[in-house]
Amino acid sequence: MDLAARQQLTKTPERRNMPFQDVELRAKPDGTGKDKLTFTGYASVTETGYERYDWLGAYTEVVRSGAFTKTLSEGADVAFLINHGGMTLARTKSGTLRLAEDSTGLHTEADLDPANPKVSELRSAMERGDLDEMSFAFIVMRQQWSPDFDQRDILEVSLDKGDVSVVNYGSNPATAGATLDARALDAAVQQLSAEQRRGLFDRLATEFQTDTEPSTTDESLSWHAARARLLDL
Predict the structure, then answer these.
(1) Residue 54 confidence (pLDDT) above 80
(2) What local confidence, expressed as pLDDT, does residue 36 receive?
(3) Which residue in 34, 41, 114, 171 has the most C-beta neighbors within 10 A?
(4) Which of 13, 8, 10, 6 has the alpha carbon at shortest distance from 184?
(5) Distance between CA 155 and CA 133 in Å, rounded?
């Protein structure tokens, strides 16, 4: 396998998730007799390796300190969402979302409207422990691979038009309950070279112990989920 294929920078949107770290949802008076709800936590932790997968297998990825410096200094327009979708609950453009990079990672502070039903749902789910991960959507602008292409260092990202989200399961669509977009997956597969598609199919066939891909009319969720995971979607 030619692992050097990993170094191609496609500048397509990516997502990463992590368990809650220093997350707090607190209410405090806003001066008008009402409570303001503020969310704080880390959407990303820097200088910490984690395992990722692509069509060539497993590798380690590290978001390096300083990866967010440029995009934040340029005033990136970022939304605070639930599961990377739905109504915007806070936004950097409006000043209701504040992002900063510190020695831990990408710190997030969002002013939420308690009167918003989605915020009430978020509060309930967090208090029950049903939502316990954060994720952020970004585009890699600069990266560096180790000589053996076994570690990817993300040096700079763009957050503009991306988001920070509280999520069920983060970016791993193989986890039960995640929503999969078959058309997006098929489009991603078509962008691979013939050799890369063959390698992806071989890995899926091994995982599911079959040599026949499910038909498009009766495609299994687990197959689609594994394909998305291997494609890093």
Answers:
(1) no
(2) 80
(3) 171
(4) 13
(5) 23
